[in-house]
Design brief:
- The protein is α+β, with helices and mostly antiparallel strands.
- It has one domain (11-150): Nuclear Transport Factor 2, Chain: A.
- 27% of the residues lie in helices and 37% in strands.
- The chain has a 6-stranded mixed sheet.
- The longest helix has 18 residues, at 11-28.
- The chain is elongated and about 55 Å long.
Length: 156
Amino acid sequence: MTGAKVRELSEGEYQSQIERVIETLKADLPTLFEKDITYDIYTEDIYFQDPISKFKGKINYRIIFWTLRFHGQLFFTQLYFDLHAVHQEAKDTILATWTVRGTLRVPWKAQIFFNGYSTYTINSEGLIYNHIDTWDRKPTEILQQFFRKGENSGVV
C-alpha cells in the first residue's frame, strides 16, 4: 500500500481478527475442492508456497484455488480435504493440519493420500500475508500413487 496509512489494531481487535481468520479457515478449507474460499482474510500481496509452486499476489492465489477445484473435478471421482485442526501457534502464526485423499478417474480407481500442514503468517492488521504448505511426501511420491490400484494403495 503506497501512501496509505495503516491503522494499528489494539491487542483486543487484533486477537478478535485472528479468531475471525481461524473461523474462516475452519469453514473454507474442508470444502476448497467444491467451492471458492473467502479472500478478505488475505493481503493483496499474499505469498504462497508449496512443494511444487510459489507466487505472490491475491489474483494468483485466486487462480490456484480455481485450478484446484477445476482439476479436482476433472481428474477425480472423489476428492476430500480433511481438516484436522486450526489453531494459533504464535501471536502472528496460525497452523492448520490436514489430509488430502481421493480417487482418480481411471479404470483402476487409483487413490491419492497425503498429509500436510499450512502455516499462515498474520500482519499487524490481522490479515494473512504468507501461506506455506508442507507435505509429508515429495510430489513424485504422491504422483506414484496414481499408478497403483485403489485397493493396493495403502489408503484407509
